[in-house]
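User: Design a sequence. Structure:
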């Protein structure tokens, strides 16, 4: 019996929910565990909107990028054209961390005597691997992409990492603390060092007044480093405003209709709820089709049981189910086909 993938009415879930969200909003985030289909579904949604004539930017924030593999095309930290109306970009947190540390480090270098530069470099090298640094860098890139992208694109679609940084998006003040407070502390330490060197300078051994920044006012120093840190803080609070704006932004969780993914989704929803993130839609991907033999019918029934748990716990959440496809969803052609089932 022929089975029309992507056509015909779905007997479950709500059809076109994803497309409606994509038409309504400016920013979409797709989260969920690894392998559930975040990349596939977010790319298909982005493509579907581009095919409707919208200008769309698809962004991968997963360090294990696979947009490039999906489209069989090199994609990097700068947007590349996939098809008319669709650009894609893969966020590189390492690059952002390096750029930030270079900026702070050069500011510190200019404020401190040459003899202290290796000490500064040591601190900066340690900061590179500090907890939260990488995630803060991803968030910073997300902030930049949203700020710049909203002018050029009708829709920005984020394919996020399974690590759950989506959950942390809304806990930005804490994230920022890890980033900025650490650096401020380091700066204070550097200042103390400068003071110490200055004190030495007042001793007979060091007469050079430039050592330790003695000729520069404390305020000047303060403002230079603070400016860098405050600019970042401002960026984060701006991002938070965008994310909290429900008219503009939606969060979608993708999952499989299996026992553990269902339980994990309930947990993730709980966490996000506490972080102030409202989920607008659940996508249950790779659903077993019916009417194609006993095996798949049984599988479908089993899935229904798991989804009952989901519906009971998250009863108010709209859900869209997508069928398991007979072939891998690969390349522009595969995605075009899959996009028809949205
Ligand atoms: N509806 C589907 N039918 C068949 N294969 C799918 C479907 N959705 C995703 N896949 C396949 O599952 C694998 C994982 O999907 P992917 O989108 O990379 O997941 P994630 O980004 O969540 O890790 C890929 O090989 C993809 O082609
Ligand atoms: Mg992925």
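Assistant: Done.
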């Amino acid at each position: 019996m022929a089975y029309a993938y992507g056509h015909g009415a779905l007997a479950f879930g709500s059809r076109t929910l994803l497309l409606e969200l994509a038409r309504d909003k400016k920013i979409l985030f797709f989260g969920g565990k690894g392998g559930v289909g975040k990349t596939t579904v977010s790319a298909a949604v982005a493509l579907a909107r581009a095919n409707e004539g919208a200008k769309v930017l698809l962004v991968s924030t997963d360090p294990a990028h696979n947009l490039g593999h999906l489209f069989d095309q090199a994609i990097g930290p700068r947007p590349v054209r996939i098809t008319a109306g669709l650009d894609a970009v893969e966020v590189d947190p390492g690059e952002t961390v390096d750029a930030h540390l270079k900026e702070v480090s050069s500011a510190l270098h200019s404020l401190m005597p040459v003899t202290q530069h290796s000490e500064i470099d040591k601190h900066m090298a340690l900061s590179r691997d500090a907890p939260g640094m990488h995630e803060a860098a991803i968030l910073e890139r997300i902030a930049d992409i949203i700020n710049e992208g909203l002018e050029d694109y009708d829709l920005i679609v984020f394919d996020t990492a399974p690590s759950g940084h989506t959950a942390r998006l809304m806990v930005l003040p804490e994230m920022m603390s890890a980033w900025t407070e650490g650096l401020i502390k380091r700066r204070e330490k550097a200042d103390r060092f400068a003071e110490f060197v200055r004190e030495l300078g007042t001793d007979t051994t060091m007469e050079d007044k430039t050592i330790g920044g003695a000729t520069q006012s404390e305020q000047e120093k303060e403002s230079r480093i603070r400016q860098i840190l405050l600019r970042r803080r401002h960026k984060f609070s701006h991002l938070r405003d965008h994310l909290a704006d429900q008219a503009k932004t939606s969060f979608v969780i993708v999952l499989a209709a299996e026992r553990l993914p269902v339980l994990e989704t309930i947990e993730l929803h709980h966490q996000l709820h506490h972080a102030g993130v409202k989920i607008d839609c659940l996508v249950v991907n790779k659903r077993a089709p019916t009417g194609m033999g006993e095996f798949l019918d049984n599988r479908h029934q089993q899935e229904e049981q798991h989804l009952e748990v989901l519906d009971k716990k998250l009863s108010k959440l709209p859900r869209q189910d997508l069928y398991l496809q007979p072939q891998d969803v690969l390349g522009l052609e595969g995605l075009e086909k899959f996009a028809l089932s949205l």
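The chain has twelve helices and eight strands. The pocket of adenosine-5'-diphosphate (ligand 1) is lined by residues 34-40, 66, 285-286, 322, 324-325, 328-329 (CB under 6 Å).
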